Amino acid sequence: MEAILKKIIAYLSNNQLTEALQLCEKNKEKKIEHLILNIKGVIFFKQNKLELAKENFLKSIDLNQNFVDPYKNLFKLNLKQQDYISAIENGKKVIEYDTKKNPLSHFNLALAFDLNNDYKNAIALYKIVEKTDFKEKKILFNNLAKCCFSDKNINESTNYYHKALEFDKNDKIIINNLLNLYLRIGKVDEAEYYYNRAREIDENYIEFKLNKSEYLLSKAKTEEAIELLKSMINETKNYIAYTKLAKIYLMINNNNIKAIETIDEALKVYPNMRDLKFTRGILHLVEGEFEKGWDLYEHRRSMQKKKIFENISLWKGESLKSSSILITSEQGMGDVLQFSKFLISLSPLCKKIDFLVYGKLLSIFKKKYKNINFCEISEIQNRKYDYQISLGSLNKYFYKNAESKTSELINFDKDKKIEWGSILSKKKRNIGLIWSGNFFGPKEPYRSIELKSFQKLLKLDLNFYSFQNEIWDRDKNFFYNSNIIDYSKKTFSDIIAIIQNLDLVISTDTFFLHLSCILNKETWGLISLNADWRWYEYYKYNPYKSLKIYKQSDSRNWDGVTDLIYSDIKNKFSI
Question: What is the DSSP letter of 313?
């Protein structure tokens, strides 16, 4: 037995795959059959016959469930196929059966969570590895930093990047990651420093060129950014360069034609790239080409996360008579508010709807409305459903239905409204002001406004209230020295009651804009030139009656919008 195994492994080591496979086929020893099947899987994996490889790894596991090697190999195969959910499952098995307790097993599982955009689990596992003697600490810290950044923990991200940099002060990957971070959060001096460092180290590095396009945009050097991205596309066909170029075209007076041409060209090169398909879908929606748009809208990244309920059939428009359906949330909180009205449209078509809501939003909605139940995950674990669908995907079926109103689903607290009515000052007009969203949100930083742009407005004899719990670094000093009353720590129940008692809400495209409009409060919406798709043709079917839109005319500044707001508010309140 040992002799044949040694010979097979020798062939395998020398990449003599045909000879190794022939010896495997000749094996008659049952005791080593699980080993032979695993080796056959490795041979097929090396030959890029992935389905045959998977079949043999699984057969090996069937014969010996505690044998760790096929789990390790399946993990590698899953990563190659970008099947991160299966990689996570096999990574867990490796940890369970790995008697050596190699920290690499935890690192690999963390990587699978990382690639599946499950950053919290990835961070937890990476931090376990951090406490071991894992040798590749530079890679570990870099990965941790990226996950912390994606999980919106800027301080930890920055710290881990600098820890990684201690191993090699000239590592171009880490330096460019820091440059990207500082460009993203708008720290000008730090971005300038790392831009110069990255350029000195390798100005031809692809990531530097991509970062450089963002750097040029931050300096209002739009044409230079366009030319750089065009040259990258000509030289490398880099798919990110295509998306960045399309984004710039949309920023320049909403040049949809050039943006569409750019993405269409990219799709010829990368016909299966999900991000490109999604971007093309959004452009269809902007143009009002809804039938094409909705299909491609299903390629959005938030749909690629782990499917918790894999055994429930996806609803694709079938008859729902006597059926129960589970609706899941996977987009931002503003999307949940805006699209939840489609639950009312769906309601008459089926027996029961369970809507799985983010925990923080549960208090906003009624517990039950007609046959619609608002649930958290612990409530539905053992329930049976005929179908499931994401809330955002209901758009395809109901976006033209203007009758349904989200306000019917909102949990209004009359006592809270009365309470806040007595708290808020009656001596001055009370205005809600929201100027920025989460800087990791879509279209950021372009849909947010620097707070100091409102300094004329804030000098008026009015009370201003803020609900946003994230203040960008660029705004912190101005905010803490302003007369804005900070209500960001209030519960949603309180915030709803406060908004009901305000005279006006002024907001950029954020969750609070949607909340204010759903509460039917007069709202002035500050919408960027390159706005989200829902502010174009879609808005004609889904308008807010209480919303007045102020659209940016120049993507480089908001002066025209803030000046008009200042003038209109003076006229409105006769100040």
Answer: P
Contact 362, 329 (CB under 8 A): no
| Structure tokens belonging to residue 160 | 């881990």
CA distance 292 to 298: 11
- Quick one: CA torsion of 156, 159, 162, 166, rounded to 10 degrees? -120
DSSP string over 363-390: GGB-SEETTEEEE-HHHHTT---SEEEE
567: phi then psi, degrees, rounded to nearest 5: -65, -45
Sorted by sequence, the CB contacts under 8 Å of residue 362 that are 6+ apart come out as 374, 376
Going 488 to 491 to 495 to 501, the CA torsion angle's sign is negative
What's phi and psi for 326, nearest 5 deg? -105, 125
Residues 413, 411: Cα–Cα separation, whole Å:
6
Query: 280-294, 296-310, 344-358, 499-513 — which is least confidently predicted?
Result: 296-310
Alpha-carbon span 568 to 462, nearest angstrom: 14
Work out whether the CA dihedral 91, 95, 97, 103 comes out positive or negative: positive
Per-residue model confidence as pLDDT tens digits over 273-295: 999 999 999 999 999 999 999 99
Q: How many CB atoms lie within 10 A of CB 57?
A: 27
Cβ-proximal residues to 62 (8 Å cutoff; 6+ apart), any chain: none
